[in-house]
UniProtKB/TrEMBL annotation, chain A:
GO terms for molecular function: transmembrane transporter activity. Pfam families: BPD_transp_2 (PF02653). It comes from Kaistia hirudinis. Keywords: Cell membrane, Membrane, Sugar transport, Transmembrane, Transmembrane helix, Transport. It comes from the Bacteria. It is found in: Cell membrane. The keyword Transmembrane helix applies. Its main location: membrane. This is Simple sugar transport system permease protein.
UniProtKB/TrEMBL annotation, chain B:
This is Simple sugar transport system permease protein. Pfam families: BPD_transp_2. One of its GO terms (cellular component) is plasma membrane. Its main location: membrane. It comes from Kaistia hirudinis. It is found in: Cell membrane. The lineage of its organism: Bacteria, Pseudomonadati, Pseudomonadota, Alphaproteobacteria, Hyphomicrobiales. The chain crosses the membrane at residues 12-32, 39-59, 65-88, 95-113, 147-168, 199-221, 277-296. It is a multi-pass membrane protein. GO terms for molecular function: transmembrane transporter activity. Keywords: Cell membrane, Membrane, Sugar transport, Transmembrane, Transmembrane helix, Transport.
Length: 349, 314
């Protein structure tokens, strides 16, 4: 018995893989919910209610989806070119910090219509720069970027902590370590009145569509894919690998930084060191569940957000620790890897 | 007031070095064994967290401290088996699988911990390992306090570094691990089953990683809290490169690293508020990156690291 790679993966399998993976993850996590002494189906029903049961919960789920689309895209773009950017968490924080600093009373003071795009770009730039360091180390010195991006996450959060307890500290926050807030008119317009849902969701979806177009219809998109699939062959075919990967890193780090910027502009208004409940790391799962497809990222991000928001509700109602959401998401990454294998290969006797 | 250099003359610093180094020694040796057989195990961060949780929980429920370590090792081995099954026979991406193991193992640790220990103001504690004073040696001036009054797992970690170095160099099993990591096809031609050797190495290495985590809750601290591993796993992965994949250098690297860490802790007290404390906390991570940078071109990488082995395929 051996595995044989399929020349072409049919669309039905490409869609069945993540669905199967998620179902498997939910079944496995169900065992853990049962361990908590709680009826499993009731728990999952509560989760759905928690995520979609009311206008408020739906808006919360979509608000949570927004940064996950962006960090998911950040991972998807990078992984497609075999740039292992696991540093989205740090890039998110640097983006958030840059945005908060420039958008506060210490910052630019421009008209909101001009300044808000600038703030988003600044956040993206901060994230992009942070990823250029490990990419540069890989291209110049052959240092594996997985470990360096992971290590830089801790450095970035400590840097944020230093700034919000130092020069960017909010003097009105009663001693809590949080950054100066952005000016009130820099807040992103709401998509839905009386909710936290803001137009950042449209920005994220728009970027996913743009990215899909770039990846499938442009020369750069093809070269970026070739650089990941087979760097040697790509180099012989005249693809300038180095500069392609730098551009990929700029996009990937930029998306993660933008996620931080938008979270500040749309939801929080300031930066703390718990601004992200692991958006960066979860982005990796989103990207993998999406099969690295930018459109798929939207759906996968919605799924992951559903788990997190739903688990909060379920936890309140039934006392199951809300960490179950993290478990489901992590499990679905592992089951997705196996599902992808089954989709990409067929078993021959 | 103490001078920045006087710190080196305190036995407390050197005792702290060994204490800080212990989880790193376990973790680095674990990652090293996996990688010498050709498998990168990025599950380390999560496996250390799980080891910390299981070890603590065992003791909290009345188990002996050594039973806690054993339970941690067993749990680590189980996650190692999962990582190995996914990456070795199935040949899945070692990067992504490892990351998945880390996410899974750490979230499962938090979930189980919360299930057993409800939220409370002060986290519950256990009675941790006490320093084991080596007879006579611990009476030596300075050296006694600095080196020979450690907790038992620290001595075990140091001993293990030499044992693993010896095993890799001098035993048939070690040779098998090395060949599989360098050239699995040649290993197969020698009658060695690369798949079994890789699985066994990852299982063993992961057990060591979990011991490193358990040291945190059973000796260094006395309670478990989420995110307590704080990137130590990633530091270990960097230390393996720094050590050029050699156990005795891994020991040296972990000690050197711990020296910087222990020193910065004390230096921050001396320097006071002139430098933000976060700068000192960043040093271990920046140091790891620097170590990677210095050794990247010089290190002897196992040639088949991250190369999946498939029978009959070249």
């Amino acid at each position: 018995m051996r595995l044989e790679r399929r020349a072409h993966v049919p669309l039905s399998l490409a869609i069945a893989a993540p669905i199967g993976a998620v179902v498997a993850a939910l079944i496995l996590a169900g065992l853990l919910i049962a361990l908590a002494g709680v009826p499993v189906f009731e728990a999952y029903r509560r989760m759905l209610i928690g995520a979609f049961g009311s206008r408020l919960s739906i808006s919360e789920t979509l608000t949570r989806t927004t940064p996950l689309i962006l960090t998911g895209l950040a991972a998807a773009v990078a992984f497609r070119s075999r740039v292992w950017n696991i540093g989205a968490e740090g890039q998110f924080y640097l983006g958030a910090l840059a945005t908060a600093a420039l958008g506060s009373k210490l910052g630019l003071h421009l008209a909101p219509l001009v300044e808000i795009p600038i703030l988003m770009l600044a956040g993206a730039l901060a994230g992009a720069l942070l990823l250029l360091v490990p990419l540069g180390l890989r291209l110049k010195f052959g240092v594996d970027e997985v470990v360096t991006t992971l290590l830089l996450n801790f450095v970035a959060v400590l840097f944020v902590s230093m700034m919000i307890e130092g020069p960017l500290k909010d003097p009105l926050a009663f001693g809590w370590p949080q950054s100066v807030p952005i000016l009130a008119d820099m807040a992103l317009p709401k998509l839905l009145p009386r909710s936290r849902l803001h137009i950042g969701l449209l920005v994220a979806i728009g970027l996913a569509l743009v990215l899909y177009f770039i990846q499938s219809r442009t020369r750069f998109g093809l070269e970026a894919r070739a650089a990941g699939l087979n760097p040697q062959a790509a180099r012989f075919a005249g693809v300038p690998i180095g500069s392609i990967l730098v551009r990929v890193a700029l996009i990937s780090g930029g998306l993660a930084g933008l996620a931080g910027a938008i979270e500040v502009l749309g939801v929080k208004g300031y930066v703390t060191t718990d601004l992200s409940p692991g958006f960066g790391y979860t982005g990796v799962v989103v990207a993998m569940l999406a099969g690295l497809n930018p459109i798929g990222v939207i759906v996968a991000a919605l799924f992951v957000a559903t788990m997190f928001v739903g688990a909060d509700g379920m936890s309140r109602a039934m006392g199951v620790p809300s960490f179950i959401a993290d478990v489901i998401v992590a499990l679905s990454l592992l089951t997705m890897l196996v599902a992808l294998l089954l989709a990409n290969y067929r078993v021959r006797r | 007031m103490m001078d920045a250099l006087d710190i080196f003359a305190t036995a407390g610093l050197w005792a702290a070095v060994l204490r800080i180094a212990t989880p790193l020694i376990f973790g680095t040796l674990g990652a090293l064994v996996c990688e010498r057989a050709g498998v990168l195990n990025l599950g380390i961060e999560g496996i250390m967290t799980f080891g910390a949780m299981v070890g603590w929980l065992t003791v909290y429920h009345g188990g002996d401290l050594w039973l806690g370590l054993a339970a941690a090792a067993l749990a680590g081995a189980a996650f190692g088996l999962l990582h190995a099954l996914l990456t070795v026979p199935l040949g899945l991406s070692q990067h992504v699988t490892g990351l998945g193991i880390t996410l899974f193992a750490s979230s499962l640790s938090y979930y189980i911990f919360r299930l057993v220990v409800p939220v409370s103001g002060t986290p519950p504690t256990i009675e941790p390992f006490q320093p084991l004073r080596i007879p006579y040696l611990s009476d030596l001036p300075f050296l006694g306090e600095a080196v020979f009054a450690q907790t038992a797992p620290t001595y075990v970690a140091i001993l293990l570094a030499f044992l693993i170095a010896l095993a890799l160099q001098k035993t048939p099993l070690g040779l098998a691990v090395r060949i599989v990591g360098e050239n699995p096809h040649a290993a197969e031609a020698q009658g060695i089953d690369p798949i079994r050797v890789r699985i066994a190495s990852v299982v063993f290495g992961s057990a060591l990683m979990a011991l490193g985590g358990a040291f945190l809750t059973l000796a260094a601290f006395n309670s478990f809290f989420p995110t307590m591993v704080q990137g130590r796993g990633w530091v270990c992965i960097a230390l393996v490169v720094f050590a050029s994949w050699r156990p005795e250098r891994a020991l040296l690297g972990a000690l050197l690293f711990a020296l910087f860490d222990a020193y910065q802790l004390r230096l921050s007290h001396v320097v006071g508020k002139a430098v933000p404390y976060q700068v000192f906390l960043m040093i271990p991570y920046l140091l790891s990156i620097a170590a990677l940078l210095v050794m990247a071109r010089r290190a002897r990488v196992p040639q088949a690291l991250m190369q999946p082995f498939r029978r009959g395929e070249r």
